[in-house]
């Protein structure tokens, strides 16, 4: 993948492996789409790998750019503070790699379709 873009999916993390499996499902789907050269999951807390470890895995895979995508619904403290700090720490540790923090899932128009679909169960 040398020089490609990696996607680092970031969830809060849970002690329940079934909850963390949702992010693994998303990662597998993103890998199948082939848009990113490397897709890695990571967790803010309570599960492994950590964001720092996940970012390091992206770099080890040869990423020139890493997109940190918060698997969060809103831009609360974790996204605006904790993930910004994690991005900055990764950038300081790997200065030759670009780390970009994407927006959380939040106000994306397609989310309305998902909510409507879930409400019809």
Detailed description of the structure:
- The structure is a single chain.
- This protein is of the alpha/beta class.
- The chain has one domain: Rossmann fold (3-Layer(aba) Sandwich), CATH 3.40.50.1400.
- The chain has four helices and four strands.
- Strands 2-1-3-4 form a four-stranded parallel β-sheet, sandwiched between helices.
- Strand 3, helix 3 and strand 4 form a beta-alpha-beta unit.
- It is globular, with a radius of gyration of 14 Å.
Topology, please?
Elements: E1 5-11, H1 17-33, E2 38-43, H2 51-60, E3 65-70, H3 77-93, E4 98-101, H4 109-119
Parallel strand pairs: 1-2, 1-3, 3-4
Tell me briefly what this model is.
The protein has 121 residues and is an alpha/beta fold. 45% of the residues lie in helices and 19% in strands.
Class by helix and strand content? Answer: alpha/beta
* CATH fold naming: Rossmann fold
The biggest beta sheet reads:
4 strands, parallel
- How many distinct domains? 1
**What is the helix tally?**
4
Low-pLDDT parts are none
Return the string of H and E elements: EHEHEHEH
Strand content: 15-25%
Offer a few descriptive terms:
121 residues; alpha/beta; Rossmann fold; four-stranded parallel sheet; 4 helices; 4 strands; 19% strand; globular
């Amino acid at each position: 993948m040398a020089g490609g873009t990696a996607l680092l999916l970031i969830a809060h993390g849970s002690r329940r492996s079934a909850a963390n499996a949702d992010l693994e499902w998303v990662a597998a789907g993103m890998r199948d789409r082939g848009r990113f050269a490397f897709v890695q999951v990571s967790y803010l807390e309570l599960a492994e790998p950590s964001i720092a470890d996940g970012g390091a895995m992206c770099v080890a895979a040869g990423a020139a750019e890493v997109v940190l995508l918060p698997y969060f619904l809103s831009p609360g403290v974790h996204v605006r503070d904790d993930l910004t700090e994690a991005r900055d720490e990764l950038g300081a540790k790997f200065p030759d790699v670009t780390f970009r923090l994407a927006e959380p899932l939040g106000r994306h128009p397609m989310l309305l379709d998902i909510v409507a679909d879930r409400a019809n169960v």
